[in-house]
Write the structure tokens for this entry.
Amino acid sequence: MPLAEHFLTQGYRLKISTTSPHRLPTLAALPAEACIVDIGKPLDDIDAFLQSDTLIVNITSKDIDGFERLVRKIEASAIQSVLFVSSTSVYPVTCKVVSEATGEESPDHPLVIIENMFRQSVQFQTTIVRFAGLIGGSRHPGRFFRGGKLVKNPDANVNLIHRDDCINILDRIVANGLWGETFNACADSHPSKREFYTQAAKMVGAPLPEFEDSGDHSFKIIDNRKLKRVLDYEFMHPDLMAIRFDED
């Protein structure tokens, strides 16, 4: 919804999908053309939805068969460009900095398989954006570990990105027609889980998280330099420790 609202302010004519029929009136009131698209089911009735120039695929499903059906439908449609929102979870924990060029994605990760489906199609262009963990808006990290849920590996570095930056990055790619690329999207700073989640909990007045010190010191740090260079992008929230979640 925040992404749709942003694009409407930029003057785009927008179609937006949901898997839930009860949400259609809310989406149609944006205003936008609201449709049902569920890749877990047959996609026979989405031809009108795909009568567009650009498609942003921003769903959490890892249904490989469903995405294969979607790719075939896109190939037969008017879509020229696809922006596929992926995740930095495609990188295993390597105890080092990982970039788009290191080739360290887990080849059997469902998202890597799905990324490649889009990337390998010759009927349309695809840009992949691998977002780090989402924070901001309704996602307050100070409330991530409630109810006695332990924070494991507390001295590992966090890889996170604020919703404001997610929206602006997607806008920048579409506005500039930056297709055929793969970008890591992650804030500049990487404090430890212990530092970050303790401060975030204090900001919202939540109980402090409990940490499980198991002796595991593995970590990974997501390199965002390609995105900043190619998009000429400056993060709105580069320093995670400076974000005021009590005001978000």
